[in-house]
Amino acid sequence: MEASPPTSRPEPLIASWQRSREHGLRPDEPLNDTALAPGELTDRIAANNRLLAFSRPMIEGLYRQIGSPSSTVLLADRKGMILSALGHTDFLDRASRVALRPGVDWSEATMGTNAIGTALHSGTVVTVQGDEHYLARNRILTCVATPILAPTGGMLGILDVSSDARENLTHAEALLRTTAELIEHRLLETLDDGFLTLHFHTRRDALADPLHALVVFDEGGRLVASNRKARGMLGLDAAHPATIYEACFTTPWNRLVGWAAQAPDAPFPLYDLKGRTLIARANLRSRRHADTAPRAATARYDDSRLGAIGRGDGRIARIVDTLRNCAAENTPLLIEGEMGTGKAHLVRAFHEDHKATADAPLIGIDCTALPAGEAAEAELDRAWVQAANGILFLVEIDALPTTLQARLFDAHDGSRARVIGAARRPLAELRREGRLDLRNFDAAGGRIISLPPLRERDDFDELVRHVVREVAGGRPVYVCPEALALLHRHRWPGNLRELRNQLRLMLALMGDEASQLCPEDIPPELFENAA
Predict the structure, then answer these.
(1) 56-67 pLDDT, tens per residue?
(2) Is the pTM of this model over 0.85?
(3) 157, 78 in Cβ contact below 8 A?
(4) Which residues partner with 147 through β-bridges?
(5) Closest of 458, 511, 459 to residue 218, by C-alpha
(6) Which of 193, 241, 237 is nearest to 219 (CA)?
(7) Which of 260, 147, 244 is nearest to 199 (CA)?
(8) Parallel, antiparallel, or unpaired: how do β-strands 516-517 and 478-479 relate?
(9) From residue 305, how far is each of 98, 294, 301, 354 by CA, in Å?
């Protein structure tokens, strides 16, 4: 049995063989046909529904162009798990003998050197022919794979063509790359996010080409999404393409917004920082794509509710990370934060993302509304039973007698509900005043989360824009920088709740035809108590 690839092979494949050995694999490794259980595969497919929905027509076109009954076109997720396979029945049956089928992991750690796993590791197009595969059983195949890049950065999945080792796939690499770029372009065009879409190229006729440069900015000119053509022209990192408009172009941002609003999709000159004159088209985006996107494919790339909470504030990002890290543990949580900072919203997002089963309950109790004495204890017991295997959320937990607090945390174990308490006042103060007994909470490994008030959040501008988009119901409304500066002056004692209510009132008074939120749209009384 050959222990290393022939020295004439490309260096990336030689390095891949070395990684395969480091993973503890042997070339004569027996077939491990372990696949995801049907329910787990369904969950994995649901998590990638947007990628699957928009790639399907392109994959069918690619299979027709390959034109070989001894080939299959595969789509894998960003971990190397095969999600779908399209091919002739006879070849699919043969491919299944080496576990080349949906639900099987084809990462290098599991399958050694192969096109899917090695493309996943390298981030580039990879061809692996016959005996270049690390595992002997896979040497009946010739495979070509390319990454599919996410509009927001990083990798979404892998597109692969696999065939009989005797097949000639020399034409497949270019077809694969073009198909991947078409998928990326379509995903970006229908992304349910952003304020302004900008198409550009060095040639006017290239704007009709589906592979021209395409970027999406938010209201503040921050890059939300981009395709690989745009990243190449602007010199952006594929994994982390974050930037701002002014770091790419010299044409003033306000002028670009004006063009997009007054003459959407009309060509105009755009000047970049390299001194080039580009031809561009721009339009203001609607957040609703009901006419163009499949219903099952409208989710953001980070489909998690927690992921949608973090909009650029470092403290919120750390809170989200903390919640994700403790999701597998049934430890209790305490959340402190002023009125309206989003404590209940955070708990709902955490529950939705990490509930053990589809029907795992979230039971909320307002402790200030509980009756006195034994009746309170009986009501808590009922709620505790109802919340089994889910979350028991206690609002204003400091209103509970400390004996009941201690009992709840002391009763904590893996078979019961997770207890999450919330308080408006700082927990340290409540503890000093004897209104919280956290000894059993500490013994159970409880975590404390502190939600910052709105006036201290770094993502204030993005939160304003997000709420405006929600309230406007898909109608593009530009928030002027001067309006943002004015909103910063208010102390926002009601935090996110107050912000949402005030912005809803402002947009209602502006009317349905207004396209900009300006300083004159902000009621002066909002600043009577401004700092």
Answers:
(1) 888 988 988 887
(2) no
(3) yes
(4) 158
(5) 459
(6) 193
(7) 260
(8) parallel
(9) 38, 21, 11, 10
C-alpha 408/C-alpha 418 separation (Å) is 10
Q: Helix, strand or coil for residue 143?
A: strand
Q: What is the pLDDT of residues 170-184, one digit of tens each?
A: 778 888 999 999 999
How many Cα atoms are found within 13 Å in the side-chain-facing hemisphere of 89?
0
CA 128/CA 150 separation, integer angstroms: 24
Task: List the structure tokens of 272.
Answer: 């970049």
Tokens 């078409």 found at:
182
Backbone angles phi, psi at 435, to 5 degrees: -95, -5
In SS3 terms, 392-442 reads as EEEECHHHCCHHHHHHHHHCCCCCCCEEEEEECCCHHHHHHCCCCCCHHHH
- Residues counted in the chain: 531
pLDDT digits (tens, 9 = 90+) for 432-484: 999 998 888 988 889 999 999 999 999 899 899 888 888 887 677 888 888 99
Which single residue is written with the structure tokens 């879409």?
197
Cβ contacts of 427 within 8 Å, gap of 6 or more: 334, 336, 436, 438, 448
Amino acid type, 429: E
136: tokens are 């002997």
Does the pLDDT value for residue 30 go beyond 80? yes
Report d(CA 297, CA 303) in Å as an integer: 11
